[in-house]
Amino acid sequence: MKYNVCGIVGLIGEQIRVSALVEALEKLEYRGYDSAGIAFLKDRKLNITKSKGKVENLKNQLQDRLNEVIETGIAHTRWATHGEPNDVNAHPHSDCFCKISVVHNGIIENFRSLKMRLQELGHNFLSQTDTEVIPHLIEEHYNGDLLEAVRKAVLKLEGSYAIAVVHADHPDIIVGARKGSPLIVGVNGSTKGLASDVTPLLKFTREVVFLQDGEIVELSRDTVKIIGFDGTIHERNSVHVDWSYEDAQKSGYKHFMLKEIFEEPSCIVSVLTGRIKNGSVVLEEFEPFEKTLIDSKSMKVIACGTSYHAALIFKYLLENKTNITVDVDVSSEFRYKRINLKPGSIVLAISQSGETADTLESVRLAKKHGAKIVAVTNVVGSTLTREADCVLYLNAGPEISVAATKSYVAQLVMLYLLMLRANEILNDSMEQNSELIDRLMRFPEIFENSLKFADKIHELARKYKDYKHFMYIGRAYGYPTALEGALKLKEISYIHATGYPAGELKHGPIAMLGPDFPVFAIAPNDSLFPKMKSNIIECRSRKARILAVTSDDNQEISELADDIITVNSSREELYPLLMAPVIQLFAYFVADELGFDPDKPRNLAKSVTVE
Ligand code: F6R
């Protein structure tokens, strides 16, 4: 399972200049741009430069040194997960004597306990990052053999990582290791290297080894040695990659949107990482607010767009599963209403970017009325995180395509966790809880399987692409899914699509249906399927074509729908998550078939920083 959080690269060769590492980093900048940093060896001395913000800032700082020939070096572009994006938290991180330097992509789950232990042993820490434990652990195990020290250190790490390590006393090698995060090794040519993806390596070589979980590599100018975490030698064949640079950035996918949908299984892992211990949900950040939630039995939620749809699903979840009332507002509406919040009450602000102007303004207003802000966001250091009282990070990695896809899935997983935690503290339906937790843990695998149906969805997109209108319908958990399906379709394919609660059709919208106005029905085999069935029959009798997304245990739907997409059968509250990739892929393929660029829809921006 891959984590796409930061970009790392290391190079070794005869004529490498500082500028080569900076260029390599520029190729990885799409993975994160909170900070950039470099560590290189020259005359057996470790030189480290780090800078908040884009690689450009780092380049300016290194201006006088760009032409210097170096022995070896590593570099990093950061998508912050632990600690503010600032110079101190920027990678590379070092040991106590600044001899060892490490760049890391991933999350070290047990960093707190490791840090405490290392501090007891006298190690001095500078940053708030999880990464900093790695160079100190290597220092602790170093006995003249860097490869062996790295091997011993990684055995202590829990979580996911791809790392690259240099040591001032070993100017002739770079050591890398991987567990859970990608690491690719460029294996021939006069310059060798390793990186989070092939993009920065393509300039030097097209023969690469995709390191596997549990492997460590030692690269010198002439040799590549791969060992397992147990120390045994691994023989690995290289593969030839003929992707262009652009293709490589998208890992071979045609668009970022498609790549990001396919990253959803790994995003689910990212959100769950460290959040479930001994069968119960751990949301340490939220602990100070638990008592308020129990006492007030209510929560206000504000968000915009796709995040608003995630908020609506959360309302159904919490209200169906607990006795907590959830009141959801679109941020742009909330900020102009009379505010009716009790001091100390909880306001949940959901925003992928953490920069949405309406959500930020609403947060400020709510704070003025004494509310406590709990933020759910993907961007560390965003304005929302600075203004909130507590932040639940998604760690979904940068989302480049304008349309929210993997961040929506990550939001949903986080909101399921929040619902489960509320259930735990209220001590309600613990049995159901543990079943839900088990199911959530299996979701990455289930998603991998669902994504195998992309070709079928593509085929349906070809069939439906020429309709000018779509009606998305659903009930209960299916209703926000219908809203989100309609939003995805209209924003990237420019086809008019509208989402409705299925029961509302006969109160007006059914008047529009006919042979030219198909219906996309969110119709799993859940407790409300009999009602959905009647709604679908109503639509059919107006001669509307029916494209239904359902669960694989639904036998009846084949008589009702013209076309069917199935997902694994599950508990009804989990269908919004299971159906997310279906509605996203359908919109993506329609847009692509119509010749539009799904990554850059017209009139839209990734962060809506204006009202
Ligand atoms: C749709 C989409 C937007 C955002 C909305 C809120 O695909 O991306 O609707 O969801 O602009 O953005 P955030 O979540 O960053 O506050």
Give the number of domains: 3
Helix count, per DSSP?
Answer: 19
The best one-word shape is globular
Based on DSSP secondary structure assignment, what is the total number of beta strands? 26
Cofactors, ions and other ligands in the entry = fructose -6-phosphate
CATH architecture of the largest domain: 4-Layer Sandwich
Structure, described:
By secondary structure, the chain is of the alpha/beta class. The protein folds into three domains: 7-248, Glutamine Phosphoribosylpyrophosphate, subunit 1, domain 1 (4-Layer Sandwich), CATH 3.60.20; 256-451, Rossmann fold (3-Layer(aba) Sandwich); 454-593, 3-Layer(aba) Sandwich (Rossmann fold), CATH 3.40.50.10490. 35% of the residues lie in helices and 23% in strands. It contains 19 helices and 26 strands. The strands form five sheets. Strands 3-2-4-1-10-9-11-14 form an eight-stranded antiparallel β-sheet, with helices on one face. A six-stranded antiparallel β-sheet has the order 5-6-7-8-12-13. Strand 15 (276-277) and strand 16 form a beta hairpin. Helix 10 (305-321) runs antiparallel to helix 17 (478-493). The chain is globular and about 80 Å long. The two termini are 38 Å apart. Fructose -6-phosphate (F6R) is lined by residues 304-307, 351-353, 356, 359, 403-404, 487, 491, 608.
What is the strand and helix layout of this fold?
Elements: E1 7-13, H1 18-28, E2 35-42, E3 45-52, H2 55-61, E4 72-78, E5 93-94, E6 100-108, H3 111-120, H4 133-141, H5 146-154, E7 159-167, E8 174-179, E9 184-186, E10 191-195, E11 207-210, E12 215-219, E13 224-228, E14 239-240, H6 245-249, H7 256-262, H8 264-272, E15 276-277, E16 280-281, H9 287-296, E17 298-303, H10 305-321, E18 325-330, H11 331-334, E19 346-351, H12 357-368, E20 372-377, H13 383-387, E21 390-393, H14 406-425, H15 430-450, H16 454-464, E22 469-474, H17 478-493, E23 496-501, E24 519-522, H18 529-541, E25 546-551, E26 563-567, H19 575-593
Parallel strand pairs: 17-18, 17-19, 19-20, 20-21, 22-23, 22-24, 24-25, 25-26
Antiparallel strand pairs: 1-4, 1-10, 2-3, 2-4, 5-6, 6-7, 7-8, 8-12, 9-10, 9-11, 11-14, 12-13, 15-16
Helix pairs in contact: 1-2, 3-4, 4-5, 8-14, 8-15, 10-14, 10-17, 14-15, 14-19, 16-19, 17-19
Bound molecules: fructose -6-phosphate.
Residues 304-307, 351-353, 356, 359, 403-404, 487, 491, 608 line the site of fructose -6-phosphate.
